[in-house]
Design goal:
Keywords: Membrane, Transmembrane, Transmembrane helix. This is Integral membrane protein. It comes from Nonomuraea dietziae. By secondary structure, this protein is mainly α. It has three domains: 60 residues; 164 residues, no CATH class; 151 residues, no CATH class. Helix content is 78%, strand content 0%. It is built from 20 helices and no strands. The chain is globular and about 65 Å long.
Length: 442
């Protein structure tokens, strides 16, 4: 799961009315400290070494950029977040065509493994790139993304070789290339370009589902490879910068290690639950499609919560008032996420053959989406240790209690639902506790 790193631009817009006439970074630093921002928050939330480094970055943006109208800026953030889910899901339109050519038995196991690798790699690369950019090192961030892409392709190809067929290697490399390169385009706010480049392959994949002819499947796969190649070229061009800045040694070591562990636990929890059914039970395999399509909703609501709760800080006088309103905002955001995911999931299930196990599996993914929403908020506070512990507990319950239950898909998916409910409960307890500490939101 991607960890949201809060953009400095939002902080700039928040401080602009007070600092529009600032003449030096020290004025900005004083304003940041008056808002309760310390060195720890500067590192965890914005990727800067300390408050003064953050102040220099904010000051540079204040003096060189014209303020965007708040309504326009809000609309821009909203649509960019909401389209992320459908963008992530675009390659899925090619799966029926690929399956028809390669065979589901040789396709799915390899793709499950490379999906996990791409998930972890993309999450860590994104966090590192945001941190380096926040430190004023965009060339180093670009170099990191390029190296991550090369590393991912090598690992995906080597892993796919375990499954033997050359076609599996090509598909695994293509899939991981899309995962990493789409992240690069979204990092550079090129959602429209990503949609345009993947549109021919997506349309062709949908065309095969309608027509069902082998030649259409071949055309769809060929267009898919070309589209992903175009996405990769765009990602490489976007990451072309000059000589990298002096490396910031040790700045992100602990943070990246925790991000790596958390991403691995998150990917393992979901893929272990789904991996057993990608071949044998299509109704269970597609149960998580609503969650993928709704990931942008989770990001959008997380941004909305952060903005709203900071507004509450400036309106109330007592911590107890902030806590009460913060809980209401949290509940509102969670219910909105659950409602959106439920609607998307119902729409997906309406196009498939529904079973009891499929409904339970879909409900588990909706609950998991609510947990992801709360996890975004906790990640923005730098609480990766707690996130790792909560996700590890849910994974332990799901994998550890399985042998104690009767065999069969129904018992397994019910256990997965229980583990998702446990994860959501743990994260809500952590988030509820953080709402008592106003300094998290200044």
């Amino acid at each position: 799961m991607k960890i949201i790193v809060e953009p400095i631009d939002e902080l700039v817009e928040q401080l602009r009315p007070r600092l529009a006439r600032a003449v030096e970074p020290l004025q900005v630093a004083a304003a940041l400290e008056s808002e309760g921002l310390n060195d720890k928050l500067a590192r965890e939330r914005y990727g800067h070494a300390d408050v003064f480094s953050l102040a220099e970055s904010v000051y540079a943006r204040l003096v060189r950029a014209e303020p965007a109208p708040p309504a326009e800026a809000g609309r821009d953030t909203t649509w960019r977040s909401l389209v992320h889910g459908p963008l992530y899901a675009m390659p899925a339109a090619l799966l029926p065509a690929v399956t028809a050519l390669v065979g589901v038995e040789s396709l799915m196991p390899g793709l499950v493994v490379t999906t996990g690798i791409g998930w972890v790699l993309g999450s860590v690369l994104s966090r590192l790139a945001y941190g380096l950019t926040g430190l004023g090192a965009p060339a180093s961030a670009a170099m990191t993304l390029r190296r991550g892409l090369v590393l991912g392709v090598i690992v995906a190809g080597g892993t796919a070789l375990l499954w033997g067929p050359v076609s599996m290697v090509v598909l695994a490399v293509a899939q991981l290339t899309f995962q990493v390169c789409s992240g690069i385009l979204l990092f550079h706010r090129r959602e429209g370009l990503l949609a345009l480049l993947m549109l021919p392959a997506t349309v062709a994949g949908a065309g095969y589902v309608v027509v069902g002819e082998p030649v259409v499947a071949l055309v769809a796969v060929a267009l898919g490879v070309l589209s992903i190649g175009a996405v990769a070229c765009a990602a490489v061009l976007l990451t072309r910068h000059g000589r990298p800045e002096r490396p910031v040694r040790g700045q992100f070591t602990a943070d990246l290690a925790l991000a790596l562990v958390y991403s691995a636990l998150t990917a393992g929890f979901l893929l272990l639950a789904e991996g057993a059914y990608v071949v044998s039970r299509p109704d269970l395999a597609v149960a998580g499609a609503g969650l993928v399509l709704g990931m942008g909703v989770l990001e959008w609501r997380a941004h909305r919560f952060e903005s709203a709760v900071r507004g509450v800080v400036r309106q109330v006088c007592y911590p107890v008032e902030f806590t009460a309103q913060g809980h209401r905002l949290l509940l509102r955001g969670l219910l909105c996420c659950l409602a959106a995911l439920t609607c998307l999931t119902v729409a997906v299930l309406a196009m498939t053959e529904v079973s009891l196990q499929g409904v339970v599996m879909a409900a588990a993914h909706v609950v998991l989406g609510g947990a992801y929403f709360v996890a975004f908020l906790l990640a923005n506070q730098g609480r990766l240790v707690e996130l790792c512990l909560a996700q590890g507990a849910a994974l332990l319950v799901h994998q550890g209690a399985g042998p104690l239950l009767p065999e069969g898909p129904l018992a397994d998916v019910l256990l997965f639902l229980a583990a998702c409910l446990l994860l959501l409960s743990l994260l809500l307890a952590l988030m509820s506790g953080s709402l008592k500490d106003v300094w998290h939101y200044r």
